[in-house]
Amino acid sequence: MSEEVNTTQYSADSIQALEGMEHVRMRPSMYIGDVGPRGLHHLVYEVVDNSIDEAMGGYCDTITVTINEDNSITVEDNGRGIPVGLHKKEGVSALEVVMTKIGAGGKFDKDSYKVSGGLHGVGVSCVNALSEHLKATVHREGKIWEQEYERGKTLYPVKSVGNSNITGTIVTFHPDKTIFTQTIEYSYDTLANRMRELSYLNKGVTISLTDKRRKDDKGEFIGETFYSEEGLREFIKFLDETRVPLIQNVIAMEGEKNGIPVEVAMIYNTGFSENLHSYVNNINTHEGGTHLSGFRRGLTSTLKKYADNSGLLDKLKFEISGDDFREGLTAIVSVKVAEPQFEGQTKTKLGNREVTSAVSQAVSEMLTNYLEEHPEDAKQIVEKVKLAAQARHAAAKAREMVQRKNPMGGGGLPGKLSDCSDQDPENCELFLVEGDSAGGTAKMGRDRNFQAILPLRGKILNVEKAMQHKVFENEEIKNIYTALGVTIGTEEDSKALNLEKLRYHKVVIMCDADVDGSHIETLILTFFFRYMRELIEGGHVYIATPPLYLVKKGSKKRYAWNDKERDEIVETMKGGATIQRYKGLGEMNAEQLWDTTMNPEYRTLRRVTIENATESDRIFSMLMGDEVPPRREFIENNAVYANIDA
Ligand code: 0RA
User: Fold this and answer.
1) Which residues are CB-neighbours of 309 under 8 A, at least 6 positions away?
2) pLDDT at 114 over 60
3) Residue 323 is among the residues annotated as catalytic for this protein
4) Is 445 in the pocket of ligand 1 (CB under 6 A)?
5) Band of pLDDT at residue 518, cut at 50, 70 and 90
6) Residue to probe by mutation, ligand 1, list 62, 169, 172, 205, most atoms within 8 Å of CB
């Protein structure tokens, strides 16, 4: 492992190490993606990943993560402890090398599935470089060892500070405020979601999270412990909690194919959406890739063969397509790849060719067995596929209508759209407004040069409960497609959204700031999430934030977006102020709407992002699905945007 015998290069290498750390501080986004909330949380994942690696090697079963009162983070594991002995090549303790040399982590453990150049796996040294202070404590060889750093610079050589009869590693870091200028406040929910996900992906490992900034009613710190006995099997149950299962069991397998560790779990539900989630080395591959292609291939060929042999599809008049096998399917594919190649816009698409057949074979074997052993379930699945094929046929017709009406196809824009005059999509904004009356106000208030208005009638269709053809037949939804100028199908993927002719680069959902408004907002977001996810991923979807109050005194007018702001304004006006609560957009006049909500100079738009597709999927199916109790609980907890980070 660490002790390579080569002393000649030591000085040159340590200079390089320093340069490496400086480089991380100069170009942090190159290493952790960005320096906003995402990058901030990435630091934690980076440290936890190291402990997970230790757990995957079988050396560690417990990881604890603590958000300390001052927003510093402590990650502790009961692994072997980072080696502290002399690293001959570097001439210092191995611990110091791990903590201060960019890219050193992987060298210690050649067998681990480290992601180099990917999203994670840049190493704990990166976290060190981006922390104003970091302390590493190692329990190993009967002693407690310690070293501290400031902005990646070692404060003292590794020293022993006491005796110990356990082993493990403890890292506490304070993110550097001068790097993370936007915020250094950790989100409990974001970390909890990731720790939960990790516990499903690495069964048998206990991961607990404690938030020392907050206490519950009993005076105890907020926290959760995540542990999964069954891994992906349980993950599927968690994802499909609010859906109605079509078959009795989760179908799952775990094993190695062509030297690639593959884990797959799937179930069918009575719904219509396809929910595929894929991971490589514990990283969510949002853009899919070869492992997902392998899954699809194995699924399609196995089910096709079974259906053909069973004669269940004999009377079907049209060809079954790959999509038909995936309606109402929730599946997770998780592979471990030694040298993953990541491609795609966000570098979350697996490119390694050899993975396709490994996963495809694994799925074929797993599914063939299951279908043979569960003929009743097999029948249910084939029947569902048949229905899906019929519905797709109907949907294709409806979709053609959407395409034909496309402006570029010569069909003209929707009558209800008040378009803007600028022709450059980059400058243009489309406001989706609830109701004709608010639509009218927005039309008067807007800057017609670059702002277009599309009023939507009342409640839009709940796509979570509708079959595809109903979605494409829906007037409001057709209008959204036509107004945006987007079509379905690209050269690469017949189902992908084609954004080439997108007519507005900002699509703004503008609803009342009340319960109904937020419901409509969720309906629209559900539609975007299920049918236009690429639009969200492209950063084109925004939510407008109309004010809640107008505070007036004489000719003085101020707006407030929450109760605290309102009270502060009332205070500064020193008595005699009148407060108007806006119950809806309709109560504002055009000028007020422009001033507060539409004028780029003063408005606040929240960009909708998909922080965690797995979690968003669950939230949408819960919010919009059939089962009422969890939805009510969720809405009562009032966390509609828990994972739609805007
Ligand atoms: C390389 C070798 C050994 C342990 C580790 C890495 C290690 C790294 C981290 C990072 C966080 N927690 C960790 N725990 C262990 C040990 C090699 C040996 O004992 O033979």
Assistant:
1) none
2) no
3) no
4) no
5) confident
6) 169
